[in-house]
Amino acid sequence: MFEFQSHLIFPTHAVPKAGPLPKGAEQLSVEAGKGITLHGVRIPPDKPDGSKTLILGFGGNGWNGQDVAEYLHELYPDFEIVAFHYRGYAPSSGDPSGDALIADAPLAFDAAVDAVKPKRVIAVGFSIGTGVAAQLSRKRPLDGLILVTPFDSLKAVAQSMYPWLPIGPFFNHEINAVAPLRGSKVPVAIVAAEHDELVPTLRTDALRKVVGNLVFDRTIRRAGHNDIYARSDFHDAMHEAVDRLKA
């Protein structure tokens, strides 16, 4: 199992390719060293609200960056939206890993800020992207974090999925969300799924306990890890979360 760890955690072969760019969108790119280029998508607001807010998205392991950007644009049509394809997720080059995603996040932030020149930046992470966004808060100034189906430790999530296996000593892709958020002053919003079949409630609760500035916390009833995104009460929670971060 362990030799296929990367394929299990980063199923790049199964991720749908991005379609044509939405109207008004533009491609972004940034060099990540050693011939590796990260590609992203910027979608401008339909009707700018004057706040010059940038939503920087970090998707789950089964998302391409453009789908993340388009989904966030549907949620927040009046904000600037940027999301990058993770390393190894086409058209970005290289090989994905926990360390690589963490290292690439500040590069995505810098490229997005350079393109948009925002007054405020809110990072939104979905699933594995919650850990990436949390780690980003250590290295770049964020005005808030929205974490959807978050966890404390990717290693701990993996161990819960395979309790009969000694995951710890062999896990190569740890993404820890506790260390950067413990005692942090960055405002954090958590949106969890009541019946999350991938991230156990125990793992989300462990993160809640250490967040230094938790300003919004909502669990979507009867929602699972994947079907949460189509729920109207989830959409409402995401809007409330942004409002709370802006307060």
Note down, in words, how this protein is organized.
Helix content is 33%, strand content 20%. It has 247 residues and is of the alpha/beta class. It has a single domain, classed as Rossmann fold (3-Layer(aba) Sandwich), CATH 3.40.50.1820. Helix 7 (201-208) links the parallel strand 7 (188-193) and strand 8 (214-220). Helix 3 crosses helix 4. The longest helix has 19 residues, at 98-116. It is globular, with a radius of gyration of 17 Å.
Topology:
Layout: H1 5-9, E1 26-31, E2 37-43, E3 53-58, H2 65-75, E4 80-84, H3 98-116, E5 120-126, H4 128-139, E6 144-148, H5 154-161, H6 178-181, E7 188-193, H7 201-208, E8 214-220, H8 232-246
Parallel strand pairs: 3-4, 3-5, 5-6, 6-7, 7-8
Antiparallel strand pairs: 1-2, 2-4
Helix pairs in contact: 3-4
Q: Which structural category do the helix and sheet elements fall into?
A: alpha/beta
Q: Identify the overall geometry.
A: globular
Provide a count of the helices.
8
The main sheet orders its strands as 1-2-4-3-5-6-7-8
Query: How do the SSEs run, as a string of H and E?
Result: HEEEHEHEHEHHEHEH
Q: Got a strand count?
A: 8
CATH superfamily: Alpha/Beta hydrolase fold, catalytic domain
Looking at the structure, the CATH topology is: Rossmann fold
Uncertain segments: none
Number of domains: 1
- Helical percent range? 25-40%
- Counting copies of identical and different chains, the oligomeric state is single chain
- The residue-averaged pLDDT reads 94
Largest sheet: 8 strands, mixed
Distance between the termini: 47 Å
- For the record, the CATH architecture stands as 3-Layer(aba) Sandwich
Specify Rg, calculated over alpha carbons: 17 Å
CATH class: Alpha Beta
Tell me the strand percentage band: 15-25%
